[in-house]
Amino acid sequence: MRESDAKQASDLLAWYAAMGVDEAIGDVPVDRFAASEAASLVQDDPKKTPRADPPQAPTARSAARSTTPPATPPRAKRPPAPPPQANAPAPALDGIMNLSELQAAAAAFDGCALKRTAKTTCFSRGSEQAKVMLIGEAPGRDEDLQGKPFVGRAGKLLDKMLAAIGLDETSVYITNTIYWRPPGNRTPTPQEIQSCAPFLARQIELLAPEVIVLLGGAAAKSILETTEGIMRLRGKWKLYHAKDRDIPTLATLHPAYLLRSPEAKRFAWRDLLMLKERLTTLQ
Ligand code: URA
Fold first, then answer.
1. Total-model pTM
2. Which of 43, 103, 177, 271 is at a distance of 20 to 30 A from 144, taking alpha carbons?
3. How far is the CA of 10 from the centre of ligand 1 (A)?
4. CB of 149 closer than 6 A to ligand 1?
5. Could you report the per-residue pLDDT of 171-195, keeping only the tens digit for each?
């Protein structure tokens, strides 16, 4: 290795460390053989250029990978999102009068194709008496295995964040915009989120929380019905219009994003302090 290459490699490692990348294992395996095959195809035929991925808005999952430096091999293939489908008719949920019945209705619901590939229906964890409801994006692998939201690495960080302002599973109720894990942890499509939306709306009505906290862009956009990005939405109290009342709602950064972008934790901390402050007015 030339001295300049070694210097470049060591600078890159220092940059990773500064960005908080402290492990070398990705969320998904990278097929290096496919990557080098693609590169050699391009060398064989210079007219063939590798297709760039279209730019995407950051989500809990994609933004969380944003510390990847420019020269990495192409991302591993993820199962593609299915083409948009007509939504299954929204089920009538008004007659459901408690959260256990709603959970059973969600588990029996066949209007979201993700259910076919998921192992469990991941409905909620926490207290049904909670004043604080947290809504994340979608179950990941650990959540799918255990059938509960936020029990993996992001969940552990979320628990620490809550503990920092005196909250825990006995004082919060946690769910997601969808109840089934998207294959390969891809971002759920708007259609998938839409298919579960009537359940989430009824879940909010039945829980009747005093405040809602939206974890990440997917939850924030869906619940606040906006296309604004999470960086603009976070740290501001907005109102969610439930059927019978308006509920103060605060968007913040997703813990999975914070795991990979620890420098953004200061924003999440400010949001947590806003939540804490609000909760003192409720006591
Ligand atoms: N990320 C989410 O958005 N929800 C989970 O339950 C776990 C990780």
1. 0.74
2. 271
3. 34
4. yes
5. 999 999 999 999 999 999 999 999 9
